[in-house]
Amino acid sequence: MTSLTPESATPGSPTTTDADIVSVRSALRSPRRLRTEVLAGLVVGLALIPEAISFSIIAGVDPRVGLFASFTMAVSIAFLGGRPAMISAATGAVALVIAPVMRDHGFDYLIATVLLAGILQVVLGVLGVARLMRFIPRSVMVGFVNSLAILIFMAQLPHLIDVPWPVYPLVAGGLVVMVLLPRYTRVVPAPLIAILLVTAVVVPSAISVPTVGDEGELPDSLPSLFWPDVPLSLETLRIIGPYALGMAIVGLLESLMTAKLVDDVTDTPSHKTREAWGQGAANMITGLFGGMGGCAMIGQTMINVKASGARTRISTFLAGVFLLILVVGLGDLVGAIPMAALVAVMIMVSVGTLDWHSIRPRTLRRMPRSETLVMLSTVVVVVLTHNLAIGVVVGVLVAMVLFARRVAHFTTVDEVAHPDDDTKVYAVTGELFFASSNDLVNQFDYRNDPATVVIDLSGSHIWDASTVVTLDAISTKYERYGTTVEIVGLNPASAERRARISGTLTPTS
User: Fold this and answer.
1) Per-residue pLDDT of the chain in tens (509 residues, 90 and over written 9)
2) Which stretches make up the STAS domain (predicted)?
């Protein structure tokens, strides 16, 4: 590894390596980088408080449950996760999945669900579920990012509707600070300055506006170990199993997508498999402390990485530590922070998260319609369901269907030779799978072809059983007219697949 002085080990430096950018040791040796990480952790810790309280309400639990979950998730994933600087905490997606358990069966069953979900995530991580990320197209990622930006903005609307009029100039002032301050200095994160300035305006003047304390009661004690009082039986597994599986899948999908997004923002790689089982271990730890579980938080991650410039695990760890200190030790002060300040921060996050290039008219005109459709389908489903995981799954399915449809049209059947009166040669080119091979059977002139037909597949490849069955059907049709079929030109993989499957999937007369 290249040896760097603290001053040279900064992102963007020509001699900086990926390992240096995300290295905790490198950050500890650089006062400037360490300051960035500490202040970023403080900003994120402040931003986590109202979010955790809101998600606790969605899940139907006491605000302390969401706040403690955010603390334990952030601190745990700082050590266990595979993506430095990513923030994990209590999230809305997880709250929506487990809310029915709390409503129908109570708190103990909810914690049991969180523990089981953590175990499932560890198992899925060890089995390599992170490798499935390679099958998510770029257009789905763009839709994921854009829908996230919309959801973040929509989440602020309740704090902007039917509120005292001073809220609006306060939000506007916070936005102005965050837009203008980075032009002059980046020593202190602009979101932190905006929060402090808005609070400094409101508190001394006693302006009556909603505050963090109005969102819910803040805890006054540390979290303690908790074990759910549920019977260890198949009936318990039947109750919590489906919800735990849903939580595990939603949490992993959202976390891995967020990790990929941070990879792109920071131009540094991450260990997706470690992130997968790390999320599971963090959820197990959270459950053992009576927390509601969670996953990666994209909004807070963008505050940490994009708005504040953090790159290491230090910021993630301190976000959890500052959260606990703020709500337990400084609850009265934190409760006085105007919600207008945090709303302004989240609006800036939504604006910075949206991929504006993807929705420019010039980009949309150049982009294939299928790619735009995949992006829009992802956005629409996420916005309607408020569930990023469902939107991503729908986007991937739409992309698969459109891809199969497009590739299917590339398959052609041409008559290429007629060596004698009794022989005709067809050449099949293209990828042969269920979508393209279904029409293959109708591309031959069974009634008028000569006694021998040669089908040359040297320009194609057999990908599935549907194609083998189709080739058998073509041979059978020709046999009815007394024509002999020879299939030639198969590459080794196609020949092996046809030899193994041919004649076994259709009933014999």
Assistant:
1) 333 333 334 444 445 567 778 889 999 999 999 999 999 999 999 889 888 887 887 788 888 899 999 999 999 999 999 999 999 999 887 887 888 899 899 999 999 999 999 999 999 999 998 888 777 888 988 898 898 788 888 888 989 999 999 999 999 999 999 999 888 887 788 888 898 999 999 999 988 999 988 887 778 788 899 999 999 999 999 999 999 998 998 899 889 989 998 998 889 999 999 999 999 999 999 999 999 999 999 888 988 998 889 999 999 999 999 999 998 988 888 888 899 998 898 888 888 878 898 899 988 888 888 899 999 999 999 889 877 778 888 999 999 888 877 777 778 889 888 888 889 999 999 888 888 787 788 889 898 899 999 999 999 999 888 889 999 999 999 999 999 999 999 999 999 999 888 877 665 44
2) 413-509
Q: Write out 478-508 in H/E/C secondary structure.
A: HHHCCCEEEEECCCHHHHHHHHHHCCCCCCC
Q: Alpha-carbon distance 118 to 293, whole Å?
A: 9
Question: DSSP states of 26-60 as a string?
Answer: HHHH-HHHHHHHHHHHHHHHHHHHHHHHHHHHHHT
- Domain match, 315 and 351 both: yes
Contact 240, 108 (CB under 8 A): no
Nearest-angstrom CA–CA distance, 425 and 415: 6
Same domain, 455 and 335: no
How far is residue 241's CA from residue 254's CA, in Å, rounded to a whole number? 20
Pair 275, 81: CB distance under 8 Å: yes
Whether residues 284 and 336 share a domain: the answer is: yes
Same domain flag for 256 and 170: yes
Same domain, 322 and 379: no
449, with CB counted inside 10 A (0-12, 13-18, 19+), is middle
Distance (Å, whole) CA 168 – CA 191? 17
**What number of other Cβ atoms are within 10 A of residue 302's Cβ?**
27
Residue 304 DSSP one-character state: I
Q: What ranges make up the beta strands (E) of 257-372?
A: 295-296
